[in-house]
Automatic annotation (TrEMBL):
Organism: Diaphorina citri (Asian citrus psyllid)
Limits of the Polyketide synthase C-terminal extension domain: 24-136
Protein name according to UniProt: Fatty acid synthase-like
Keywords: Fatty acid biosynthesis, Fatty acid metabolism, Lipid biosynthesis, Lipid metabolism, Multifunctional enzyme, NADP, Oxidoreductase, Phosphopantetheine
Recorded name of the encoding gene: LOC103510792
GO molecular function: fatty acid synthase activity; oxidoreductase activity
A Pfam match: KAsynt_C_assoc
């Protein structure tokens, strides 16, 4: 809501008052002014800070688009009147995204200030927006637009490690075809064997009762985690007989 309030203030040049405010807290620095009446917004920068009880803290600095305020409908009409179409640039992660943005722009009533804002946003390359496109506004009799791949698509690989409950019979059978994964599994198996655990059988067996034993479930999940191709773990195991638990630690 703070972001919406800031955008409305920048659009109208008026800061909305706070409701239900009567007496300031004496423990707060009295130089902080709580607005109780509509107040003119001066300047082009507005800071918005969010402090969440869940631990999410964010801060953003907004800059107002430098447009000339028009006071009458006649002024707006003159401002939006153009003797020739204007080139408008856009960018997106996908070619479909480019088409969607252009379609939206071409179906909206032409607004010169809005087109200036769009161009200002997309005039510089934005990391992660692989496609760039263009259109002419107001749309001529025959629409003119296009798109082009301007950044190489090289997305990072992420390994998502799930917790207890993500195991299933034969969970790593197909992964054993990959040599780095298979080698890491065999390294873990060499450590597990003296403890009476056959990790290869545990992660490749179709037996639906394999994971009725929680120890098999835990060892299978952890072993698959530390055996991904990007990790060459050093695995150490310690069997704690009194508590019937297995301590697994690993390091790069």
């Amino acid at each position: 809501m703070s972001m919406v309030k800031a955008l409305m203030a920048m659009n109208t040049s008026v800061i909305a008052p706070n409701i239900n405010f009567e007496t300031p807290n004496t423990n707060i620095d009295q130089r902080v002014k709580v607005l109780t009446e509509p107040t003119p917004l001066t300047g082009d920068l507005v800071a918005v800070t969010s402090f969440s009880l869940s631990g999410t803290v964010a801060h953003v600095l907004l800059k107002r688009h430098p447009v000339v305020a028009t006071k009458t409908k006649e002024d707006q009409k003159k401002n939006n009147a153009r003797p020739y179409p204007r080139l408008v640039l856009v960018s997106s992660r996908t070619e479909k995204g480019i088409a969607s943005i252009i379609q939206k722009l071409e179906t909206m009533p032409y607004n010169n200030d809005f087109c200036s804002l769009v161009n200002q946003v997309f005039k510089e390359p934005i990391n992660g927006l692989f496609y760039s496109g263009y259109t002419l506004l107001p749309t001529p009799t025959k629409a003119v637009h296009g798109s082009l791949l301007t950044q190489p698509i090289k997305r990072p690989v992420w390994f998502v490690y799930a917790g207890m409950g993500s195991q299933w019979p034969g969970m790593a059978r197909e992964l054993m075809w990959f040599a780095p994964f298979r080698q890491a599994i065999f390294e873990c198996d060499r450590v597990y064997r003296p403890l009476g655990l056959d990790i290869v059988k545990i992660i490749t067996s179709d037996d639906p009762t394999t994971f009725d034993d929680i120890l098999n479930s835990f060892v299978a999940i952890v072993t698959c985690h530390v055996s991904d191709p990007g990790s060459r773990p050093v695995v150490k195991l310690e069997k704690r007989r009194r508590k019937k638990t297995l301590l697994v630690t690993w390091s790069q």
